[in-house]
């Protein structure tokens, strides 16, 4: 009888930083690779080494061992080092879909640069659940199957077909009960610290036999996968020799994970189980008598990472936004419009810095304090580069607008990052020269800069004055001069703007030439009383406890007790919200609130609501109760409404002075429904509100909190609510009659892995949270909510140029006073616009996705992206790595149409 083949993959699981700092863990990694490379050279190992699905291991190694680059590249070319497909191994819910794509592209590009053929195995061994679009993302990168742990505790077999949101199917291997470390736990006994005992052949070989029989029973394809690799663990030479010494029932071959993938793909017809969509099933099985706690661990999902160390989540959201909504698209626009050089090297560095923070134990904020301190520096580098590139591109476009500025004029150019026209009221803080005249009211209590705002063709634009700060400093930098001090009077105004899709519009601020007031009517304001406001769509009443009563004028529906704050104990860590048996849950509905009217006028009304909660100071772990000592925590919320706006803007500021707790804000919807919607990477998912009926039997409880990218909505046939948030990734719909949306603001915890506790996870100090409340008249417009999330995050961008500034940035090309570069008509959401390639092979890639469950067709006007003289350019569909899929024809205005299947992601290249 022919022996069944066992395919040994020699690997490790290398969390780049986690229980120790990056430098501490790298020290061990260098030792591991030194030893592995030496064993490859002297025959100590007979096959390749798998770099845990990440290319960054080699990058980090060669920083310390640069003299070994040629040797590493030779091993890569020979297939002895199996590299990629990731750059770093991310989480799938706490980063954007676009970031997942860039991570794969960089990992595969780096593998090729090392001389390796990038792995086509979609390696997902330790992500905390799996999003619904990973099959499609993998397939668009040429990845043909996946190797998965966590979130799939509902099948017994090792193999299954994963059907993604759009219908893409990938054959998959499911790791065993201890995941990628199952062999290490059951056979190698990495948890036994007596080396001799675990290596004793008389004990080792029977364990191996038992393990292989179980794997053979549950594996539906011919070869059996044996992955040898655990957390930061080196391979064991004695056990390796026992493995490769021959087996009576199996032929053990040391090979690559891609070799097993080829069999998985070829024999996918034998696989009987199919799983669909996102995979977030919690761990089920409890230990049996005599088993340790890891043995039946049941694929823990670890859902609490969505809300731990929220400042890091917000910093990540800001970097992703700056790169994908400002720096990349407007660098592409500036290249097309005025020939701005492509700053590829800067983008590469910004993305690398960001993606290094996307390693799952980093971005999921479940590591020691030092790890997360290091992350702050990387976020800063990514943010600063992206901000600089966005400023450069938009400044050069603004300076190239035709026409000269006269004395006493300031050019104000407002940019819109979305591929749809923007017509709304926005705030601009004008930086007016201090030499401009001021006017006074009454007896001259406060000088106010005197100016008016005009369109380029001379039409005056009314504005609402919101505030000012006099004699503020900045500096002007010329290439061959010392920095120049520039003084400004900053005046914040609200003004209505009309900006073309992914484009700009120009205004002129002009100084008054005589001392006279420059005011516009401030009535009728949007405020209706000392604690109420209304526009055409919404009515808002602030109650004495600080909650809001929202009236949707479209449906007549009234929503009471909006903006209710909830606070409770959290005895967990970065992984889990820990529920205390002796908890006390506080809500703000019986609290005191102060209300102040901050702005009121025809363009913007803002109320400030200071809600005071008296809460326990911390959790007493000696008695396992909440403290009797009470502190006062203030929720300072700024609530704003504009004309024509059908949603309410809220900014909440909290200076956290308590420990060991979670704070959420609640929005009761009253919807009669059993499901709700949330956006996830490149998708909108429909989830049940009720938890699984057998939840009490689970070892890892299913929790009500689930992931979002930017919004969650709950609705019935005639009403409902949506909450859109910036950088807040955790929401819930508690299974109570009022169906409230619960948005987690932050969790503060003291536990960190392998320590006695550290302070930084407590989230002490000031924090700012931005979100919108949207009433619904039934099912929401998914595209509109996704774009509202982008709008909330990115806003509009303003470039202000004095006469002296224009010469610094102006190009030889003259641009019109307003212009747009990309317009989309149809319900697709754009996630990326960027320049790729160079020279004749260069072009602009536009990526978009269909968040709906129906096929759609979109019209694109992308002619301006092709650049001058290209007559609109030519368009084609490409995969994520730029391989052509099919021609689309001319990109000229009105001619380009793209069809998207339900939940499909497409990339269009224009050149």
Can you walk through the features of this model?
The longest helix has 31 residues, at 369-399. The relative contact order is 0.11. It is globular, with a radius of gyration of 29 Å. The chain contains 16 helices and 51 strands. The model is unreliable at 293-297 (pLDDT under 50). The chain has 911 residues and is α+β, with helices and mostly antiparallel strands. 23% of the residues lie in helices and 33% in strands. It has a nine-stranded antiparallel sheet with strand order 27-28-31-32-41-38-37-34-35, covered by helices on one side. Strands 11, 15, 16, 19, 42 and 43 form a six-stranded antiparallel sheet that branches. The protein starts with a strand and ends with a strand.
Describe, in short, the structure shown.
The protein has 911 residues and is an alpha+beta fold. The chain contains 16 helices and 51 strands.
List the helices and strands and how they pair.
Layout: E1 4-10, H1 22-42, E2 49-50, H2 56-64, H3 69-77, E3 81-82, H4 97-113, E4 121-124, H5 134-139, E5 145-148, E6 159-163, E7 169-174, H6 182-186, H7 195-199, H8 201-218, E8 224-228, H9 237-244, E9 250-254, H10 257-266, E10 274-276, H11 310-338, H12 344-356, H13 360-363, H14 369-399, E11 409-416, E12 422-433, E13 438-439, E14 448-449, E15 451-454, E16 460-461, E17 463-476, E18 484-499, E19 503-511, E20 527-529, E21 532-534, E22 538-542, E23 548-552, E24 557-562, E25 564-569, E26 586-587, E27 592-599, E28 605-616, E29 619-620, E30 625-626, E31 630-641, E32 648-656, E33 661-668, E34 675-680, E35 683-688, E36 706-707, E37 711-715, E38 720-725, E39 730-732, E40 740-748, E41 765-776, H15 782-794, E42 797-801, H16 803-809, E43 818-820, E44 823-825, E45 829-836, E46 843-849, E47 856-861, E48 874-878, E49 884-890, E50 896-900, E51 905-910
